[in-house]
Amino acid sequence: MRSFLKNQDFSKSIQFVLYFFVTFFLFSFTVFADTTLGVINGEPINFRSGPGTNTSVIGQLSHGTVVTIKSAYAVPGVGCNSGWINIYYNNKSGYVCKEYINIGGKDSLNRPWTTPKESIIGGALFTARGYISAGQNTSYLKKFNVNPNSSYGLYTHQYMANLAAPASESSTSYTSYKNNGLLNLPLVFEIPVFENMPEETSHPTAGKQDYGQSNVTDGEFEKKLDAEGFPESYKKKIRLLHNTHPNWIFKALKTGLQFNDAVAQEKRVSSVNGCNACYEQPLDQTEPGWYIANTQTVEYYLDPRNFIREERILMFEDLSYKEEYTATVVSSVLKGTFMDGISILDNQAYADIFVEAGRFANVSPVYLASLARQESGTKLSNTTNGARFTYKDQTYEGFYNFFNIGAYSSEANPALAGLVYASQGSVKNAEGVYVGTIIDSGSGDGNSGTVKPIEPVFNVSTVVGQMNVKLKGSYIVSVNPGTKVETLKKKTENGNVTFKKANGQLMQDTDVLGTGCQIMYKNGEVHTIVIYGDLTGDGVVNSADLLRMRQHLLGQVKLSGAYLESAKANHGSGVNSADLLKLRQHLLGTSHIVQG
Length: 596
Fold this sequence. Notes:
Blueprint: H1 2-5, H2 8-28, E1 37-40, E2 45-48, E3 57-61, E4 66-75, E5 84-89, E6 92-97, E7 101-102, H3 116-130, H4 139-143, H5 165-179, E8 188-195, H6 219-228, H7 232-244, E9 249-258, H8 259-267, E10 271-272, E11 285-287, E12 290-292, H9 295-302, H10 327-334, E13 342-343, E14 348-349, H11 350-361, H12 365-376, E15 389-391, E16 394-396, H13 414-422, E17 427-428, E18 434-435, E19 437-439, E20 451-453, H14 460-466, E21 470-472, E22 475-477, H15 485-489, E23 497-500, E24 518-521, E25 526-529, H16 543-553, H17 561-566, H18 577-588
C-alpha cells in the first residue's frame, strides 16, 4: 500500500475522483422524508428495469398515474441528470426519471389522502404498523396478545375487550371467503400452543366441542405437524381440516406460557355480554350490558383448539403479504362493488392497487380488499367519492378514507371525522375549503388534469413536527403528563402558537398542559390536547381519573370530546374494561400508558 501511494500524482487523481464521486452522490441522492407515493407528470414515461436509459423498458406510465415510491433516493444513471427513482407499479419494481415524477410532502401515512390509492396505501401502512408487523398478525393475536415476539408486552395492546370478537370476525370472514372461492387458496394459519393445557375446555352453555380425527391418513402431513410441535389434542382437529383442504398450511406459535396463567391475565382485560352463565359472580359490570367473564368462559375462548374448524379457522390466518394473492384473486373479493374496475384518479385498477399496497406494507391484499369492502360498502359514499362536506364548521373536498381510519364512534359523525383524519396536512384554498390537491383545468397543451400540490402559506403540520407531538384527528397527542407550556412553546418560532385552557383562558409558560387545553395557530386553526389517562384535565394521571372512568362505564358520568378520547388508555376504538384495567395497572406501576 505504501508503494502504491508513493506516486503522488496518481494519489491526487484518486482523491479528485473520490471527491467528485462523493459530491455527486450528495447532490443526487435526494431524500424524500415520510413519502410513499408520487404522480407521473409527463406522457408517456418509460418504466425501466434499472436506473438508466440503457436498461430494458418494463412498460409505459401515462400522465397522472400514481405510483408507490420504493426508495427514498434518486440514484444516478444514464439519460437522466436528476437521477432515477425506484418505484412500484402494478406489483412490479422499476425506475423512472426523477424529472417526470412529482413527490409531494406527506406524513408517514401518506396523508392527506386525495385519491383512492393514497387512502388504500395509507390504510395498509396504518394496519401493518399497528398490529400485523408488530407480531399481532392474526385476528386471534389482535385480541389475545400471547405472542412472546410481539413488539408490545404480553396481554397489552389488545384490539378489543370482547372475548368472543375473534370468533365473530372469523365467522364473517369465512362467509366472504366461501362466497368468493378463496377457501381454495393455500392459506397459512398460525395457531398458538400453551404449556400445560387441560385435556379440553368447554363453553358454559354450548358444552364440549367434540370433533376431530384420531387416525393418521397422511404420513407426510403428520411429519409436518410433528415438526411444528403440535400436541395430539391439536393434531386430531387439524387432520380433519387437512382432508378437505390439503393445501392449507398449519404453523404452531409456541407461546411458552402456562395456560392457567394466560387465563388469569386475560380475565382481567376481557368481558362478555348476552350470556348469564358466562359472567363472574358477583356481577362486575365494566360498561352497560358488559360484564367480567368467569374463568370457564375465558378458558373456552382463549383455547385455540375450540376454533380449529372450517367456519372459525380464519381467526388464525396469517395476514402478512403472500405472492399467491394476485390481482385476479383480489378481483373476486371486489366483484359487485364500485371497486370492481379502475380508479380514474389513479389510472389503475383497484385490484392492482390493493396488491401494490399489500406488497408495500406487507399485508395480505385479500384482507385489505375484504376490509375495504366491509368498511366502504359496495356503492360509492362520502368516504370514497371525494365529495365536498362540512364538519365542525370547516369545509373539505377531495379526500378519501377506504378503511374509515379515525372514524371514532365518539364523534358526532364518525364517517366525516374519518375524512377529516384523511385530510391531515392539507391547507385551505382561496375559498377557505381544505383541499390536498387541485386539478388544473389545463391550458390547451394536452396536459389538462395535472395534479398540483397547493403551496401552504402556513403549514400546521410543520409546527406540529417542531413540537415533537402527533396529530390524531383534531387532537394533539403524545404529550406526556406534567408537560409545561414552555416545553412546547420554545420549540416553535415566535408567534406561531398560543395556548389556552379548556375555559378559553390564556395559559402562562409555567402552566401544566392537560386534556382539553387548546393550541391555536397563527392561521386560526385550533387543536385540542389529549393526555391518555388524564380524564379530569389537570395534566396528571391519578386516582381521580380512575374514578371518572369507572363512573363513565357505569353511566353515572358521560365523557365526551377530548375527555372521552383520553379515556382510551388501551388505544382501542372505544372505552371499555380494558381501558379501566390499563389505568389501574399504570397507577400500580405494573404497566404504562403510552401517549400517542
